[in-house]
Amino acid sequence: MTDDVDTQVSDRLVGRVLDGRYRVGPRVAKGGMATVYQALDMRLDRTVAVKVMHDGLGDDAQFTRRFVAEARAAARLSNPNVVAVFDQGDDGGTLFLAMEYVPGRTLRDVIREEAPLSPARALDLLAPVLSALSAAHDAGIVHRDIKPENVLISTKGEVKVADFGLARAVSASGNTATQGLLMGTVSYLAPELVTDGSADARSDVYSAGILLYEMLTGNKPHSGDTPIQVAYAHVHADVPAPSLEQPAIPPYVDALVQRATARDRDLRPTDARVFSRQVHRVRSALDEGLPDDPELTGDLTVPIQQIRQDSGYDDGYTRGVPTEQGPLRHDTIVVPVEQGRPTGAPATGTHPPKQTAPPVRRRSRGPIALIIVLAAAIAIGTAAWYYGIHRYTTTPNLVNMTAAVASADAEKVGLHTNLANQDYSEDVPVGEVIRTDPAAGDRIRKNGDIGLTVSKGPERYRVPQLVGLQLDAAQQALSPIKLVTGQINEQYNETVPQGRVIAISPKFNTVVKPGTAVNFAVSKGKRPIGVPDFTGKSYRDANKALKKLGFVVSRSQQYDDKVAEGDVISQTPNNGNLFAKDKVSLVVSLGPPLVAVPDVKRKTTADAQKTLGDAGFQVRVQKASFNLGLNIVAAQSPGAGQKVKPGTTIVITVL
C-alpha cells in the first residue's frame, strides 16, 4: 500500500512546474513531513532541491504563516555549512521550499555504513555541524530537529545542515504531521522538549551530543518499543558513557558527550559555539594521542549534585549509608561510622561502661605525617602545574593578518593554524583574519591548532535584471541575494502590460550591500480615457478633440434631412472608456437627400414656376436673347432629371 502511495505522489509531482518556475525532477528523499525532489530553476537555469510539504499541511493557516516566517529566517543564514534556502512558495495549496542541491549522502548513510567511527572521525564530522548551528544561534534561530537525516555530506566531502526552522513550523500545526515529526526524531529530542515543549540553543546542543554518541557507538543511547518509552528515557535517564560500548574511547570524550547531553539544560554548553570550543579542545587532545587528560576530563565532567543528609530522600539509603535496599550511589555523601565504637555497640543511646586501661606509649608520627603531607602537596602541585600550566600557552592575536602571516606567527610560538571558516566583513580586508578559535588571549594547548575565520571582504550583491518581470517574480529574485523590496510605485504605461516592472532603483548590475531596498515602478497598464459624445456636433470640432485625446478617428458620410451637413449623425462608441490609439467611428451628415429636377421645357412660364416650386426648388426666370414674347420655357438649368439638393435655384429660359 505504501509503495502505491509513493508512486502516486511521485507521478503527480514529477514533471510539474511549481510557481511557474521550478520543474520537478526525480525524487531524492522522503521524510515524515515532506518529500525532496531534484528540480530545475528555469528562471536561473540551475539545479535546486525542492522540498514539498505533504498534503494537508497547507490547509492549516497557522502552519502556513509559521512556515513562511521560518523559511525567511533560514534564508538569512549565511554559512558554508548551512543548506541555503533560495525561495518558498505555495502553488495551489502545495507548500514548497527551493533549496541548495547537495549531491551526496546523509550522515545516516555514514553511520549505517561505517559506525562505530573513531573519535577523531566523529569529531571531524560534528565540527561543521556545530559551525552551522553556531551561525543559527548567533542569529537567534534554534534548529529543533538535529538528526543524521538533516546532515548532508556532499560528494566533495562538504558537511551541510538542512531544515532550519521547519520543526518549529510544524509544531505550530495541529495536524498529524506534528505527530510524525515526533515519531521520527524522538531519539534526538532534548528532555525539555518532551516535558514542556520549550527549546533554546541548548536543546540543539543536546541533539548534537546524541549525534556524537551515535557516531561513536553505532547505536542510539536510549531505546524502547514505542516513541513514548524513548522520550521517557530522555527525561529520566542519563546518556551512558560511549566507552561502555567502545572501551577504547578516552575519558575526556566520554565527558564531552555526557556534558552535552546533561538532562539539566543549565549544565550543558550554552550554545553551539561553546560546544564547538570544547570539541576543539578534545580534538587537540586526540591529536596528541593522550589516553587520558585528567584536567580536560575534569573541566568537561558534569558536576555531581550532592544530596543533603536531611533532604528526606529515600531510595534505599539512610543518611548517606547504604541500606539493604540498594547499593551506594555515586552522588550520595557517605557519613563515616563513629570511630572508637566497639563492634556491635549501638550508634546512639547508652554506651557501655568505660574500661580503664593503662596508657599505651605511642611513637610520635608527627615528622612522618609532615613528610607525607609535603610529598603529597608537591605531587599535587607538580601535577597541577603540568596539566594546568605547563602544557598550555596563550593564543596570540592574529586578527587583521593575512592567513599566511598568521600561520607564520603561530608557528613561531609552536602553534598551528587551519582555515576553519570564511565570512564577510565590512571592516577586515579580503584574505585577512576576522577572528580565531580560541580567541586571542585564551588558553590553548601547546602545539595546538588555531581555527582561522578569514574575511571574504564586504558582502555585496549585484542587482539582477528585473525589468519586464511580473512584480512577484521580481521580488522572489531578491531573496537569494539578500535584497529586500522597497517602495512600489504603480503608474500607467502604454507599452508595458499590467503588473510588470517598468523600472527599478538601484539600476540593474549596481553593486549593493545585503538588505538594500530595491524600489519598483510597476505598470498599471494603459491609461483609460473617457469617450465624449459628439453626436449633433460639428465634425471638424469632433475630429480635433478626439485626436487630441489620443484616439484614431474613422469618418463615413450619409444624407440626413434632419442633421445639417457637416455635423455628426452618430458616433461609435459614444461613452465609456477607451485607450490611446483605439478607434472612434463618426457618421457625418451630407444634408438632406438629392431630388431629381422636373422637366419644364415647353411649359408656360407660370406652369414651370409652379411645377418647380412644388418640387421644392427656387426658380429664376431669364428671357432668351431673341425673346419672342411667347412665355414658353425653351431651356432649364440644372437640366431635367439631374439630382440636386432641395431648395436649389433652377434657372429657366423663356422665349
From TrEMBL:
Residues 339-361 are annotated as: Disordered. Residues 342-353 have a biased composition (Low complexity). The keyword rRNA-binding does not apply. Keywords: ATP-binding, Kinase, Membrane, Nucleotide-binding, Serine/threonine-protein kinase, Transferase, Transmembrane, Transmembrane helix. One of its GO terms (biological process) is negative regulation of fatty acid biosynthetic process. Residues 393-456, 457-524, 525-590, 591-655 form the PASTA domain. GO terms for molecular function: ATP binding; protein serine/threonine kinase activity. Pfam families: PASTA (PF03793), Pkinase (PF00069). The chain crosses the membrane at residues 368-388. Its EC number is 2.7.11.1. It is an enzyme of class 2 (transferase). Coiled coil: none annotated. It catalyses: L-seryl-[protein] + ATP = O-phospho-L-seryl-[protein] + ADP + H(+); L-threonyl-[protein] + ATP = O-phospho-L-threonyl-[protein] + ADP + H(+). The keyword Transferase applies. Residues 22-283 form the Protein kinase domain. NCBIfam families: PknB_PASTA_kin (NF033483). This is non-specific serine/threonine protein kinase. It comes from Kribbella solani.
